[in-house]
Amino acid sequence: MMMKRELHMFFVCSLLFFTACGNKQESEQKSGCRIEGDTVYVTDHFLLEKIKVSETESEPYSKKVITSGMVRPIPTRYAYVAPPFAGRVTKSYVRIGQPVHQGTPLFEISSPDFTSAQKEYFQAVSSRELAKKDLKRKEDLIKNGVSSQKELEEAQNALLIADKEFENASAALRVYQVDNLGEMILGQPLIVRSPISGVVIKDNIVTGQYLKDDTEPIAIVADLSEVWITAQVKEKDIRFINEGSSLDIEISALPGTVIKGNVYHVEEAVDEETRSIQVLSVCDNSGGHLKLGMYTTMHFLSAPVEQIQIPEKALLQGEKDSYVFVQIAPAIFVRTSVMVETTENGIAVISQGLCPGDKIISEGGYYLK
């Protein structure tokens, strides 16, 4: 009885074994390949012809960091123009949007303070002329033996003091950009001039308006041929950005328009609330597309490094990872996990898993899954 049972079990196991082998051979015939672990043996010649194999290459790649930005003026190219002292506007020379050069008249203002500065200047001129004449007279007298050496030294000291007062009075007027002091007339209004070259982007100048000495700026001149764009870059991405690095700028108001720029400065401190760092970029704006306060999209590009780049079609997705098939023999392929840096325009950048010269299935890898 026991012998019959053992023979029966042997017969059942043998049947299952030969059935499994038959199923495996039948499956292999249908798929055209045999899979053992991570290794795939292609047994079908026609399947092998459907697979495209290419060699991996290392090419320069720049890491992209994308963030938002805002257009700001460059401080040295942006000037608030306010009255230097209280007075009344007697004339305006400009209008909004007008290009101006450094020294271009903007408006005239009549002020008692300016008149007082003029008086001090003319008094200094008069005192210096008198001191010069007195010194000349003392020099002539001492030659004739009439004056003393002490009187000559006193006259020389008086001229030195008069010269200093003249220099101070002249400097006080040049602060207000009054250059032609010799042509100045007592009581004339002060001409306020542009401190920089640019365009008048704000004009609140009203003829006849009385301005206090603490009045807000009534004109703004800016050179916007170049601008700053401020961007907040996350702490984890700041390592990819360096001063001088290039970037592309997209403007939402002008779809498809890309402006080139360069990183000007990376702040030293991290914003503790946002955990981001401010990055200043200087950008060409000769076309006038960038307006102050406008939002932009910043595409920072890191310094290029050599990385493996493969066709995106070569990538296959597993349950836990991305992988490719690496050829180790004409009909033998190994499933190899890879780490993908990014995919763009049909190209996948690989940071780990492949080496230059590896042969991979660039098309048709899904036949082996």
UniProtKB/TrEMBL annotation:
<dbReference type="InterPro" id="IPR006143">
    <property type="entry name" value="RND_pump_MFP"/>
</dbReference>
<dbReference type="Pfam" id="PF25954">
    <property type="entry name" value="Beta-barrel_RND_2"/>
</dbReference>
<keyword id="KW-0175">Coiled coil</keyword>
<feature type="domain" description="CusB-like beta-barrel">
    <location>
        <begin position="226"/>
        <end position="301"/>
    </location>
</feature>
<dbReference type="Pfam" id="PF25973">
    <property type="entry name" value="BSH_CzcB"/>
</dbReference>
<keyword id="KW-0813">Transport</keyword>
<dbReference type="InterPro" id="IPR058647">
    <property type="entry name" value="BSH_CzcB-like"/>
</dbReference>
<protein>
    <submittedName>
        <fullName>Cation efflux system protein</fullName>
    </submittedName>
</protein>
<dbReference type="InterPro" id="IPR051909">
    <property type="entry name" value="MFP_Cation_Efflux"/>
</dbReference>
<dbReference type="InterPro" id="IPR058792">
    <property type="entry name" value="Beta-barrel_RND_2"/>
</dbReference>
<dbReference type="GO" id="GO:0016020">
    <property type="term" value="C:membrane"/>
</dbReference>
<dbReference type="GO" id="GO:0022857">
    <property type="term" value="F:transmembrane transporter activity"/>
</dbReference>
<feature type="coiled-coil region">
    <location>
        <begin position="138"/>
        <end position="172"/>
    </location>
</feature>
<feature type="domain" description="CzcB-like barrel-sandwich hybrid">
    <location>
        <begin position="78"/>
        <end position="221"/>
    </location>
</feature>
<comment type="similarity">
    <text>Belongs to the membrane fusion protein (MFP) (TC 8.A.1) family.</text>
</comment>
